[in-house]
Specification:
The protein has 155 residues and is an all-alpha fold. It contains five helices and no strands. The two termini are 33 Å apart.
Amino acid sequence: MTARRARLSQQVIRFAGVGVLSTALHLGLFAALVRGGMGSQVANGVALVIATVFNTGLNRAWTFGVTGRRGLVSHHGQALVIFAITYAATTLALGLLGVLAPSAGTLAQTVVVAVANVLSTAVRFVAMQRWIFRHPAVVPVGDRDDSPRLSTAQQ
């Protein structure tokens, strides 16, 4: 197995672990807020914001190995774009459930949010790996000269 493939496998496994924890947090908060009387759409938004901050921080450090404060604000800002995708998916799913089964209980609503969340997971992984926590291009030693060079990400 190549080093690149091994790193990808490790990232996928860690991302899945973080995803399980984040999903449990999201769904637990969602169910608690709905049972507490909050509307399902608002509860979904509140729970997803909290889970997204948790998810981004843990994936940043553990899955993708990014430490320190450098890029912290921009990473969380970029994660808001991913949040928007996930929120749109879960909101649409809850809206569709509301049309098809207006009296659906907390359990049914939580399952619908979980399914929509799982469906958006692949998009989240690719966005985090290739956009948010992308490593800068490295110039091989034999290709270097004394002049400064910008990676394609900096141009």
